[in-house]
Amino acid sequence: MLILLAVQAMNALAVQRFPKPEFESGYVQPETLLPSPRTEILAVMDVFVLLASLSIVTWLVLKKRSRNGVFWMSLFSMIYFGFYREGCVCSIGSIQNITLALFDHAYVIPLTVMVFFILPLLFSLFFGRVFCAGVCPFGALQDLVAFRPQRLGSRLNAVLGLIPYLYLGLAVLYAATGTDFIICRYDPFVGIFRFNASFGMLLFAATLLVSGIFIARPYCRFLCPYGVLLNWTSRFSKRHLTITPSECIQCRLCENSCPYDAIDVPTPAKNPDSTRTRVKKLMLISLLIPVLIVACGWTGSRLHETLAGVSSKVQLAKEILAPVSGAAQTESFEIKAFRSSGKTASQAFSEANVILHRFYLGGWLLGGFIGLVFGLLIAGRMLTTFRTGYVPNKGTCFSCARCVDYCPVKS
Amino acid sequence: MPNRREFIQKLVRGSILAGLGLLSGALIFRSREEDGCGFDFACGSCSKAKDCNLPQARANTQMVWQLDPAKCIQCGRCATSCVLTPSAVKCVHVYAMCGYCDLCGGYFKPETKTLNTGAENQLCPTNAIKRRFIEDPFFEYTIDEPLCIGCGKCVKGCGAFGNGSLQLQVRHDRCVNCNECSIARNCPSEAFSRVPANNPSLLNGFGKEEMKGQNIKV
After folding, report:
1. pTM
2. CB contact, 8 Å: B217 with chain A?
3. Chain B residues 34-53 with a CB less than 8 Å from chain A
């Protein structure tokens, strides 16, 4: 063991065991080439392309009302942000950079990443989800294969729509604790853009694309964590895509035009419930939401050790505590690295404890968040909003402008 | 006079806008109090910005992934964990550190009897290291980079028996700079970190100053 440790220590410190030779034959040492990374000007160009394509899509959606234009823009974005930039940096993943930067002061967030996070949200806050319509390469790729979109029904849509919230919560939790960037890790399409991925990820991407033939944009609707943020900013957007340029004549032509089930149909009556039932509903909701928050929060806190199991430091501490049987001959690289780093076991344990504690707190918050979302979902389904015409749902509409072509009212 | 719904929308929109503004402001300005050079936020025109390690200056530069050979234990995961095949990590030969040994710990397997270039003697699984006679008793070892898969076997041998002139490095002409490096996640010794793109190499035994006089082209 001592010999092993000594070898490890020597490994860590390169020592000049053999002196530099003095050559007599006039030999010239070759140069060690260290190629430099992609220049920063190109990163600035990415930001510029993002801003330009967001503006163009906004103009196409709101002013031109042209589905064709949006389609060609999405194709361009897929080629530029997808195949040329190989899907990195993207707005979806930037959630994690922002979170990590907020919690870890040593991490310096590049300005470009920040712009990629904020710009689509700003556009969504004023013009709806134009980013999803024609700038996001993931959306563009899935939009291409949506040949036979089926209606899922509002209940299934609502339940599956909860997954992005859970995904977002987990991504923020893991990024805030500095454990992992799960959005990037389980990014299905980046492998397609790079023509290079593990079998599991390719299978995931293929599943999404094949199911995307019948369920349009499955990743965007039922997985994308950035979509949650865009959904909520878009709900309060100043202007948004409208199906009809003027008044809806309720011809029902657009009813089946939306592949994403994002068109809200008119409600039959203004207030279907009596005042008494409405008060009852309100009381039920105001009771239900806090109960759900506490219950889910408690569940989350119970799960904190499982959640923390992903952390490499926690795994290391576990391995030190209980070595796998028969590990005497084949000790893992983690243990070897730990030995050569010269840290003591108690240091590793205290590090793991800090992380466990963070996950305990994070488990409560994550659970509470999920409870709140669940409660709001139930509340939203209990209460109805009065509508007289066919309008795109400002939250879930991707502003793809397909419905526009179905409206017989022109100008 | 706007109706109630419009008023609420306006209110929420304003607060989201304020929140986004606060967030970006906090992220840009937050580390100003901790340490500074007295000229915060003049980084763009500062002539020393390139060598500056303060967070403000770094915020203006791209960060790229690099592995620290001092922490590396040559586990071999660089060869398999990268999103690229072959890996963006390759062995770099720092000639300035090399002893030009006949019995090279990075080239030959430990039990080798005859020191020739036979495949059975070579440590490298892909024959990426080329051995060339210079003058008695010195041999030059060069790396055929397209063949190198970054397994680190030669690095381990050179570090254990030689000067440690063979070192693993992320090659930035190949690296796609993922948001989270998948090798970094699998690295058992936490050797991966983000470094400023204008000084993207971490070579063991050769700091920035030492590199200047040597045959290292950055």
Report:
1. 0.87
2. yes
3. 34
